[in-house]
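Tutorial sheet, problem 5. The two components below are modelled jointly, 565 residues in total.
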Amino acid sequence: MIKVNKLSRRFGTTIALDEVSLGVEKGEIVGLLGPNGAGKTTMMRIITGYLAPTSGTATVAGFDVRENSLEARRRIGYLPETVPVYSELTVREYLKFTGALHDLSPAQIAEKIGACMERTGVAGVSHRLIGHLSKGYRQRVGLAQALLHDPELLILDEPTVGLDPTQVVEIRGLIKELSRSHTVILSSHILPEVSHICSRVIIIDRGRIVGVGTQEELEKSLKGAEIIAVQFKNAGPGAEEALRGIPGVHGVRAGTEPESFLVESGLGIDIREEIFNLAVARRWPILEMRVVSMGLEEVFHRLTRQEEAAS
Amino acid sequence: MSGLKDRYRAVADILAPSWNKVWAVCRKELAVYFASPVAYIVAAVFLLFSGYFFSIILSITREASLRLLFQNVAIVMLLVAPMLTMRLFAEERKLGTFELLVTSPLRISELVAGKFLGAVILFLAIMAVTLEYPLILVVYGEPDWGPMAATYLGFILMGTAFLAIGMFASSLTDNQIVAVVASFGILLFLWIIGWASDLIPSTAIGMFVRSISIIDRFESFSKGVIDTGDLAYYLSVIGTFIFLTIRSLDWRRW
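Model answer (structure tokens):
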């Protein structure tokens, strides 16, 4: 459905996207995950034709987003991060307008608008001015706008940002339901959101893809780079520094117990032996040493942090 | 094969804009205009001043003509036009709705056409109210129809040119104040440049300067003279600034 090939985008000297390639298959629900400013919005804006790439190509349903922009745009329903609504229009007027922009005839709009408003839960406020609606309802109106023309591809930029917890749950449920009939790509900097809804996660940081896969795959891909939890006895204040000195160690955090540490190592390096040797040399009894399995949260932190260390 | 078909489609798209979409943009534009107080206030100010000028000029000159009236109202239009056009693109940018418009299958040219049409319709609606002045002249005097019609034609052309310039200024920024000041600046420049021609009357530069002055053109209309050169001037100003608006919005993607 989407093919992105070596896409780059610069803003002046800032590189927002750096030769990113990815593919999204029909029927998938893909999450773009990354910290703020990672390039998620830039990526979505290029796919939707709002921004031109500096180099590289992107196609939607086989149509190049530059060469055949109009055809590509016909197949996309897009909800930008700032919900694009007009306060002065009623919900129904607004949807009629956006429907017309998407080549729907008045008859088609009349036919679809009711079901679309039902589906997004805005039917009850259809005659109210959008300016008078709550943030949650506006978000729903934005979703209704993206859905009305029944696009093959839905692109949702941070769809739950700024909503209260109840609204977040509702919108997530709605997106999950939509993913049955549409290909969906959504962005978020909130991990649980992506891991709940998406079938595949693309982790993006500083304009580069740092990890792709299902939740399980991402967790598995970092096997051998686990976090080691270790607890010493009578080690004194120098322990953390000493652990940092072990080759391959990326970070050391204090654990919950006294004199316990969480030691993160580089990919594919097993540092347990080194920790043991260190403890023997310093005569620190090891009370406990175990491998902590990494959840998606850890993967996310590690992938985005390694990028930081490399740059 | 499909590439060839696409190419034909692309050609057809350029030649035949979707008037449904242009009309949809225009209707939305008018709905937003009339939902906000700006349109009413601008119309009220315009009509207040034109009514004042009408009564004052009529009581002094006792002449059943619109010539002096619209020459004075032109100054009011200089201030009013930027206020009618300031929000066209600047507001969409600020609100983020510009992203919606540009990512829907709507061509920039259709967007610009729809917006411009909306602004022109609002302007014509305000102008329609001023028809009471010639009506009063017809009831109480014997005005010359030709010059009155020419005055209206000239004023509408000039006003539409003002709107095109204002729309261009609005396409450059996401700040409505900047849009107002920029369009007022361009209009004032095109206005006062005519004065310079008085200082250097006979030279080629003087001729050129006079030829781009936006107000000199209107004066001949208000005298009842419809010159094809003047018509062409206003139409080309309108066309040029519509084109520049499309280009400036296109460039913004880069």
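Marking note: Residues 19-251 of chain B form one domain. Full credit if you identified this.
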